[in-house]
Amino acid sequence: MNKILIFGNSGSGKSTLAKFLQSQGDHVATPAYGYLDLDTVAWWPTSPPRRLPLEKAQLQIQAFMSQHSRWIIEGCYTDLLQLAQHEATTALFLDLPVALCQDHARQRPWEAHKYGDPAEQDANLEMLLQWIADYPHRDDELSLTAHNAFFEAFTGEKYRYTAPLMYGKCLCEQVVYTIEGALGPVFHCHCLKCRRWHGAAFRTRASIQKSQWRWLKGEDQLGDYMSSPQVHKYFCKTCGSALASSYDNLPDILGVPLGGLEGALKIPSQAHIFVDSKAPWYTLCDDNPQYAEWPGSEAKVRETHA
Ligand SMILES: [Zn+2]
Ligand SMILES: [Zn+2]
Question: What is the 243 CA–ligand 1 centroid distance (Å)?
Fold first, then answer.
């Protein structure tokens, strides 16, 4: 996953995903990703805007690719994506529902590289929302049809996401993962095993369907510790980060800790479980329900949203 193309409708979260993949801690050994937003090579700086001739855009894209051993190119221009596909290792297609993309567009902070001031961005919003709505119905190079064809033809590693994404990395960033769609009920588990595994007062966790989870990178870095006869705990063998749990008796389910997830998440309501084993030095001071052990049953903790 060294040369990544990210594409999809406007508002599908392309630049948010790119920024997450690109962001790095201080001690990470791998070189950072170079980043190219195709908006910056698609247009003449004129009003009304006019597309830059393909040959000129190609020169800029070639120059960018030759400057970086690892890169992310992000945008909705299939004609420009095609200029980079021969070098790309990975294609990430954010094929999200139109209404969700429109919500993202409404919530978008001021994009200083595109609009002179926030008022100018607001004035453009109605047009943008309509443009997003037209995505499945157009047939130009910026359309769902073009993205579908590009994705199908891409021969490298590729993923299509159709539900909102959450994502995280291990501490050393060799392991990168995504969760697609909503979480099951969220519990803060105070049992001794969770406290030991996380080295923390408690573990905040939810269950998901295994199909919602994707190891984008570093699956070969995983250690697998069986904490009880049916339960596997996966962790990064280099940095020790706790990543996911699986259960032999529930092969379609994963347990995921939420502490490693990034971004502005909307986490559903929560409860404390196994508070009888709580760290004596930690005081619960929120209004979430508390359970001495399981919240009625273990099955409740293994429930997923999907
Ligand atoms: Zn790691
Ligand atoms: Zn626990």
Answer: 9
